């Protein structure tokens, strides 16, 4: 089931490389560099150094005692990626790719961002590693994540608001790809999720697998066994694939939680795996939210980082092979979990991660007190307080 | 057998090169798309490339993006596209090449999509995001339907890859002139574009024609790349820009006269 380096980037029928010809030499060059350095001792040492000294790894596996007692079921552990520098798991990948870009002698870095977390993590890694970065961000996302836009600017990054299409993550990726096509000889595209043409899905997963590796060793130290269940949120799916991949051959039940938005029977959600169909977007074959003609649909989630109509191809593979169960959590339930974790544990989770927390709360109730659930807390929620405040005031109004 | 191949041989016998002109289905509306194609043909377009818009056209610049958006907003879909094609086919025998993105074919099923557009009168297909490695299934269906698969090459495509792509291509090979998306507004191409044309011609020899597109927007520029060795010029965004800028009543006349000026560049002296 574990596909360490699938041939042609194919996870079963998913993945591959559906790209304009101009980008072919660029992804081939990238693949060659990645294969050359991924197991290179000096590269690993340098990456480990930055992960430890700069990003703050390893992150704790925190037993959420109060939440566990409140729920009254399985023991809930939080994998604290929110404590990383920048406040999200994204830095694991940007440091890895940043170091790779340096070895490839690329000085100009471009990236896309949804919630802004990958943009911030790119800006930080580039600043630390002496690289120039520019970030594409959907205009709608720049409005709802203003704090992150300012953070990126502080960190020396140029932010390009994208006004085409739905003005969210998918359009930011389109625009970053267009920039890459135009500046292909000088520019490194630092993709933030486990999506896109081969080798990105494999490479991003490998850089994020540090999450699952640590969960496994920390849980073995605590309980002398792998966790009974793990839960992670899935937008493009990088924190989830980093959580799942090292546990694929373990006796662990795995859950990927998508954004159910206002409900998957409505048009307002981002539940690609739960209600999508197979298609081709952003260089990969994967599940997509599309209409019957193959046009990509508008998506919605209260969490900008989950607001994406595609998903990493390895998740599509895990869905069809049933290794991971994918389910959804609505905007409302995510907000409740956001509030619950803040109140019971003093930890404000990102709205993206709140989807995983909400699911874990439901799951824990159905499990015995001796069992364990690990929730990947992919990011912290400081960026989301405005959105939550607005959501709460609107919903109080509506219920009156 | 192939309208596209026949057209290239016919032009060769007249000592001409080809003007391939683009219209976007549903831009500015379905009915006018048919008239625009007629005006292009009247102006001398030898082959028509007709775009079926996709929500995420990542190889396209702002002009085609905005026309795609407009057309989709007005409800363009494969059924309406087929009606437009059938109407065009009832009026002219010009070779018709469909340009769209892989997902529209994949999501419907290659078999179903390709046999339907063939029946409506499409002769060949261009998919800018269909890399040759992923194309086996697509190519099988194209061959089965006796259609032409037109693949793209780029100035940075290796010789080995150009050979591989040429082998899979029928109709013509599409060279992307520049690093960038469609709709470039440069007045002249840089030297690397000319080098890429020479290089591609050396590899393709006379086995399959070479068309050059992306940023071809005026007759002088067209003439210079044809002189370097290209067999066809492909002009898309420049026509859409003209449509956007011109008052409705004058669109057809302007299109014909712009096509004429480009066609003139393809006639060798």
Instruction: Quote the average pLDDT of chain B.
Output: 97
Q: What radius of gyration of chain A results from the CA coordinates?
A: 19 Å
For the report, how would you describe the main beta sheet of chain B?
9 strands, parallel
SSE-based structural type of chain A: alpha/beta
Mean pLDDT over all positions of chain A: 96
The ordered string of helix (H) and strand (E) elements of chain B is HEHEHHEHHEHEEHEHEHEHH
Helix content of chain A: 40-55%
Number of domains of chain B: 1
Keywords summarizing the entry:
A: 400 residues; 16 helices; globular; B: alpha/beta; TIM Barrel; 9-stranded parallel β-sheet
Commentary on this structure:
The complex is a heterodimer of chains A (400) and B (269). Chain A is 45% helix and 18% strand. Chain A has a 6-stranded mixed beta sheet, with helices on both faces. In chain A, strands 7-6-5-8 form a 4-stranded parallel beta sheet, sandwiched between helices. Chain A is globular, with a radius of gyration of 19 Å. The N and C termini of chain A lie far apart (51 Å). With 400 residues, chain A is an alpha/beta fold. In chain A, helix 4 (90-103) crosses helix 9 and helix 10 (210-223) packs across helix 11. Chain A has helices at 24-37, 41-55, 65-71, 90-103, 117-129, 139-144, 146-154, 169-182, 200-208, 210-223, 238-244, 272-275, 313-320, 331-345, 351-365, 385-399; strands spanning 10-11, 14-15, 61-63, 75-80, 108-113, 132-138, 158-162, 187-189, 229-233, 253-261, 277-281, 284-288, 324-330, 372-377. With 269 residues, chain B is an alpha/beta fold. Chain B has one domain (3-263): Aldolase class I (TIM Barrel, Alpha-Beta Barrel). Helices cover 50% and strands 13% of the residues of chain B. Chain B contains 12 helices and 9 strands. In chain B, strands 5-4-3-2-1-9-8-7-6 form a 9-stranded parallel beta sheet. In chain B, helix 2 (30-42) packs parallel to helix 4 (78-91), helix 2 runs parallel beside helix 12 (251-265) and helix 6 (110-120) packs parallel to helix 7. Chain B is globular, with a radius of gyration of 17 Å.
């Amino acid at each position: 089931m574990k596909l360490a380096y699938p041939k042609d980037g194919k996870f079963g029928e998913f993945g591959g490389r559906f790209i304009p010809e101009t980008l072919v030499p660029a992804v081939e060059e990238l693949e060659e560099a990645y294969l050359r350095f991924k197991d290179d001792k000096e590269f690993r040492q340098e990456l480990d150094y930055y992960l430890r000294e700069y990003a703050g790894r390893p992150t704790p596996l925190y037993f959420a005692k109060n939440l566990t007692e409140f729920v009254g079921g399985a023991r809930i552990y939080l994998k604290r990626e929110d404590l990383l520098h920048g406040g999200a798991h994204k830095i694991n990948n940007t440091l890895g790719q940043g170091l790779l870009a340096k070895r490839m002698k690329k000085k100009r870095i471009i990236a896309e961002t949804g919630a802004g977390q990958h943009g911030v993590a790119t800006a930080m890694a580039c600043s630390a590693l002496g690289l120039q970065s520019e970030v594409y961000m959907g205009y709608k996302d720049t409005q709802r994540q203003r704090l992150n836009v300012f953070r990126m600017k502080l960190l020396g990054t140029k932010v390009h608001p994208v006004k085409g299409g739905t003005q969210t993550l998918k359009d930011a990726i389109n625009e970053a790809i267009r920039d890459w096509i135009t500046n292909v000889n000088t520019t490194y595209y630092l993709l933030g999720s486990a999506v896109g043409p081969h080798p990105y899905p494999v490479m991003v997963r490998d850089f994020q697998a540090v999450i699952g590796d640590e969960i496994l060793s920390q849980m073995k130290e605590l309980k002398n066994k792998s966790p009974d269940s793990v839960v992670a949120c899935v937008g493009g799916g990088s924190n989830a694939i980093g959580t799942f991949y090292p546990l694929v051959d373990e006796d662990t039940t795995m859950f990927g939680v998508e954004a159910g938005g206002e409900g998957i029977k409505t048009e307002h959600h981002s539940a690609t795996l739960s209600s999508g169909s197979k298609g081709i977007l952003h260089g990969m074959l994967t599940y997509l939210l599309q209409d019957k003609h193959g046009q990509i649909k508008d998506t919605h989630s209260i969490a900008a980082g989950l607001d994406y109509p595609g998903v990493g191809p390895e998740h599509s593979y895990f869905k069809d092979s049933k290794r991971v169960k994918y389910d959804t959590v609505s905007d409302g339930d995510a907000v409740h979990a956001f509030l619950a974790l803040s109140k019971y544990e003093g930890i404000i989770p990102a709205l993206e991660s709140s989807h995983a927390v909400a699911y874990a709360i439901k799951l824990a109730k159905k499990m015995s007190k001796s069992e364990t659930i690990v929730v990947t807390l992919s990011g912290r929620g400081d960026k989301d307080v405005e959105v939550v405040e607005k959501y709460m005031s609107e919903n109080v109004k509506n219920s009156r | 057998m192939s309208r596209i191949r026949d057209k290239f041989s016919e032009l060769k016998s007249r000592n001409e090169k080809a003007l391939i002109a683009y219209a976007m289905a549903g831009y500015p509306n379905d009915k006018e798309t048919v008239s625009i194609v007629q005006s292009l043909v009247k102006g001398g377009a030898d082959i028509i490339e007709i775009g079926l818009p996709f929500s995420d056209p990542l190889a396209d610049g702002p002009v085609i993006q905005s026309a795609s958006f407009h057309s989709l907003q007005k409800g363009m879909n494969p059924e309406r596209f087929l009606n437009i094609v059938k109407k065009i086919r009832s009026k002219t025998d010009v070779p018709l090449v469909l340009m769209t993105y892989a997902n529209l074919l994949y999501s419907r099923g290659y078999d179903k999509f390709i046999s339907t557009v063939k029946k409506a009168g499409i002769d060949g297909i261009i998919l800018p995001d269909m890399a040759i490695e992923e194309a086996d299934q697509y190519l099988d269906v194209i061959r089965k339907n006796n259609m032409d698969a037109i693949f793209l090459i780029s100035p940075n495509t290796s010789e080995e890859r150009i050979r591989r792509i040429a082998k899979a291509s029928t109709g013509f090979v599409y060279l992307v002139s520049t690093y960038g998306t469609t709709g470039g507004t440069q007045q002249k191409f840089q030297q690397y574009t000319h080098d890429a044309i020479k290089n591609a011609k050396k590899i393709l020899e006379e086995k399959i024609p070479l068309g050059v597109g992306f940023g071809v927007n005026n007759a002088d520029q067209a003439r210079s790349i044809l002189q370097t060795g290209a067999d066809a010029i492909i002009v898309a965004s420049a026509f859409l820009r003209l449509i956007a800028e011109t008052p409705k009543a004058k669109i057809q006349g302007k299109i014909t006269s712009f096509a004429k000026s480009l066609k003139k560049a393809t006639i060798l002296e």
